[in-house]
Design a protein that fits this description.
Helix content is about 45%, strand content about 25%. It is of the alpha+beta class. It folds into 2 domains: about 5-60, no CATH class; about 65-190, MucB/RseB, C-terminal domain (Phosphorylase Kinase, domain 1), CATH 3.30.200. Strands 1, 2, 3, 4, 5, 6, 7 and 8 form an 8-stranded antiparallel β-sheet that branches. The radius of gyration is 23 Å and the shape is elongated.
């Protein structure tokens, strides 16, 4: 039969272990600390490597957060897995990317969000100039957001001069617009 003292020691050890697990620094701060240590030791290559790793982890965390802006499936639709990447937005020169495909019967809608990409500045220039934007398609409003709908029905929005949302697929235009309106702009406003 355990004594009170034994029971208290066991509870104390369990509490200490849970605090220790909580108090451990995350991988990002560990990498930053490793970079700082390497820098102080004059190891510039090690500092760059650790900072690069920390940057990649931050980008992955940002891509995961970006994925939370993708809408839930609308009634009657099913959604595939969310895809996110911190470097996979090759069309726009890197950055963050998240996408998801939605299906109903034999139709689909794909929503993609690209952010923090150097190539987005060119797209923003085009979309902010009415003459250039008109050459890409017709202007549309998605909520309070202005966007462009191209000849194939693809809807493109620039949000906060940081993110491009595109909605495309073979579903009717009303469905694509409904998905564009369902993107969680509040998440994009807070990333």
């Amino acid at each position: 039969m355990p004594t009170t003292r034994h029971l208290l020691a066991t509870l104390g050890l369990a509490a200490l272990l849970s605090v220790t697990a909580t108090a451990q620094a995350d991988d990002i701060s560990d990498a930053i600390q490793e970079a700082l240590k390497a820098y102080k030791q004059g190891d510039m290559a090690g500092a760059k490597e650790s900072l690069g790793y920390a940057t990649q982890l931050l980008n992955e965390k940002g891509a995961d957060t970006l994925a939370t802006a993708l809408p839930a499936p609308l009634p009657g639709w099913e959604a595939g897995d969310t895809q996110s990447s911190a470097a996979g937005a090759s069309l726009f020169g890197g950055g963050l990317q998240a996408s998801r495909t939605y299906n109903r019967n034999d139709q689909y809608v794909q929503v993609e969000i690209v952010g923090d990409s150097p190539m987005l500045s060119q797209m923003m220039m085009i979309m902010s100039n009415p003459a250039l934007a008109g050459s890409m398609g017709r202007s549309v409003k998605v909520g309070k957001q202005r966007g462009i709908q191209d000849e194939n029905g693809k809807i493109m929005l620039i949000v906060n001069n940081r993110f491009m949302v595109s909605v495309e697929g073979d579903a009717p235009q009303a469905d694509k617009m409904a998905y564009a309106e369902a993107v969680r702009l509040d998440v994009l406003n807070n990333i």
